[in-house]
Every structure is written in C-alpha cells, then in structure tokens.
Amino acid sequence: MPRKLLLSSPKRYAQAVFDLARERNELDVWKADLDAVAEVFGDPVFLGVMDNPNVLLADKEAILKKALPQLRPFGYNFVRLLVRRRRAALATGVMREYQRLLDARRGVIRAQVTTAIALSDAEVLELAARLKGLAGDKQVQTTASVDPAIVGGLVVRIGDRLLDGSTRTRLERLRQSLAGQGA
After folding, report:
1. Contact 17, 78 (CB under 8 A)
2. Which strands sit side by side in the sheet containing 153-158, from one edge to the other?
3. Residue 87: φ, ψ to 5°
4. Which of 10, 31, 69, 153 has minimal Cβ neighbours within 10 Å of its Cβ?
C-alpha cells in the first residue's frame, strides 16, 4: 500500500500546484520554478542531503535558499513542504507531471523520435507534420535522439503510443518467425 501512495504522490502534488498556478494565472512561472527544482534535485548527492533525517531542517532550508535563489515565495514554500514531508525524491516526478498537465491544457503532445543516424532540422519538422495526424488536433513537439543500436528506421513514442519501425525490431521478428517455422 505505501508503494502505491508513493507512486501517486507526484501526480497529486503536481495537480495541486497546477490548480494553484492556473488560479493565479502563473502557469509558466510555476513551470520555470519546477524546472529549476527538478534540475537541482536531480543531483543524487543533493537529494541525499535533503532526504537525510540527520540533517537539521534549518540547515536544509539554508541549503535550499543557496541552491535555488531564483524561486518565488510559493515555489520555495512548495520545496520546503516536499523536504519537510521527506518527499524530496518526488520533485522530478512532480515537474514531469506538471509538464504533462500543462501540455494537455495547451493542446500539446510530445513525441520522442529515435533514429540510427541524426535527422536534419527539416526532417524533424517533416516528421512532426506527419505525426500530427496521429495526434488529432494537438500540436506535436518533437525531440529527436540517436541510437545506433536500432540499426535503421525509427522508433517514435508519442503520448502513450510506441511505434517501432526500427530495423532491429524487424530483424528480431524475422528471426522469431524463422525459429518458429523450424520447430
């Protein structure tokens, strides 16, 4: 049961922050604060200090102020809340969930494209235009990365969908098909 609670916590925190940001018309302000928090809390050493029960809360707060001087008061209070509740490890998850909520509100869907060789900017734009058909009426924001292990073709993750058109996967399917026929 505690594991389920921990898994749902980033969503609950993100939803609460998102609701507050929407009410105050500060969606982008909160996005900037959460990005900064996630970057700092992404450092395992920093996170270890924030989660360490032997470090005094006053010391943690002093460290937070130095590490995140750009945070607005509400952002700082939110981070203090995570640290006080020993939920600092959720910071990155809260930021990702907040981004998902922000994207949904703005009609944006993100696509991660992996290819064996780097795509040109023009190819990325063309691919984004083609992916728009899969995204309905949403705007597609594409991020491209390179993984030579896929051999050729491409792998696209758009929203919850995974489209694997890689040569590696096609070869694996062919191998399994041939192995099944030999039996």
Report:
1. yes
2. 139-146, 108-115, 153-158, 161-166
3. -120, 25
4. 69
- Taking the C-alpha atoms of residue 27 and residue 100, their distance in angstroms, rounded to an integer, is 12
> What would the mean pLDDT of 29-56 be, rounded to a whole number?
95
Are 142 and 127 in contact, with CB atoms under 8 Å apart?
yes
Q: Report phi then psi at 141, rounded to 5.
A: -110, 120
How many residues comprise the chain?
183
User: Rounded distance, CA 137 to CA 154, Å?
Assistant: 23
- Nearest of 16, 40, 39, 18 to residue 29 by alpha carbon: 18
| Neighbouring residues of 46: CB distance < 8 A, sequence distance ≥ 6 | 40, 63, 67
- Residue 68 has φ and ψ, to the nearest 5°, of -130, 60
Position 49: which residue type? V
Residue 112 and residue 115: Cα distance in Å, rounded?
10
